Amino acid sequence: MTTPVHPQHTALSLAASGVPVLPLRRGKVPFGNCPTCAGNTCGGRPNMKTPGPCHCPGVCHAWAAATADPAIIASPSWAAAWQRAVCVAYHPGAAGLTVVDLDNVDAIAWARTALPATRMVPTTRGEHWIYRGAMTSHNAVRPGVDIKSTMAYARYLGPGTGHMADLPDAVRALAVKEPSPVRQAPPAGAVPAGAASGECPHRTPAYLERGIAMAVQRITTARSAIHATVYGAFLAVLSRHGRCGCLTDTHVARLFTAAQTKGESLRHCTDAWTNARTTLGL
User: Fold this and answer.
1) Mutual orientation of helices 226-241 and 205-220 as an angle, nearest 10°?
2) 81 to each of 4, 77, 206, how far by Cα in Å?
3) Is the pTM for the entire model greater than 0.70?
């Protein structure tokens, strides 16, 4: 009978190859921030392309906690996390890799005809196709297909099979969004107040900032029903600010960061945001 390998041992083995790793807890999600870093009061880092001012010795900030330093992986500050860990994840982008996550048989069938063969790792429901080269991560680039590279994590499910190919243009092209179609003008009276002129009806950035801060606080102080809380916070922000064009990628990143520090995955964040937009007809 084969003895299961402890997640920490797997992590150390990957780190020896230069792959930054982090433990995942029950639910296969990262550990939440420590009390000192809760709500990103430390300055945070998961919304930055490079680590920011936080130097917490614990397993904080989701994917940004990933490290290839064996001293950190084996440190006492990570010991409690390894005792509770159910598996290991890694930061593909930091290792110079891109994972095309194929979530079902239809996605796999599409990949076999549309993408060049590369190293393949079986997953619970589909396959990970791993390419050499990093890019920006994107969810739902097509049905059942996510791209995990920079600012994301992927579960380590074994070395896989096949020769690893260079990241092809066909994968990069998946992240390029088609231009939005020109919409016909809505009937008179259907445009929200202030939106017709293209001017933000909130007049001052302070109003938007207060709304984002309240949503972040609502998420970070939640003690239960995290999924529902995140969705509710996203819905509240979009219902007030989603039609006037004042929300920026920076605002959205702050909301996603707050959710991910509570253990939400990037996929859950994206799904919640998309569902909130659909509910509001945005």
Assistant:
1) 170
2) 18, 8, 39
3) no
What's the rounded Cα separation, in Å, for the pair 40 and 18? Answer: 28
Q: What is the DSSP letter of 74?
A: T
SS3 content of the chain, % helix, strand, coil (to 5): 40, 15, 45
Question: Do residues 222 and 266 touch, judged by C-beta distance below 8 A?
Answer: no
Name residue 30's beta-bridge partners.
Answer: 24
Quote the tokens at residue 157.
């499910």
Hey, is 20 helix, strand or coil? coil
pLDDT grade for 43, boundaries at 50, 70 and 90: low
**Residue 61 φ then ψ, to 5°:** 70, 35
Token output for 98: 């891109």
Determine which helix (DSSP H) or strand (DSSP E) holds 201, and give its type and residue range.
Answer: none
Which distant-in-sequence residues (6+ apart) come within 8 Å of 171 by Cβ?
98, 100, 115, 131, 135, 147
Instruction: Return the structure tokens found at 142.
Output: 């097509």
Give 182-207 pLDDT, tens digit per residue.
Answer: 434 334 333 333 333 445 566 567 77
> What is the separation, in whole angstroms, between the first and last Cα of the chain?
55
Strands 21-25 and 87-90, bridge-based pairing: antiparallel
Q: Which of 22-26, 196-200, 216-220 has the highest mean pLDDT?
A: 22-26
* Residues facing 98 on adjacent strands: 131
How many whole angstroms separate alpha carbon 219 and alpha carbon 165? 40
**Cα 171 from Cα 134, distance rounded (Å):** 11
Q: What are phi and psi of 181, to 5 degrees?
A: -65, 150
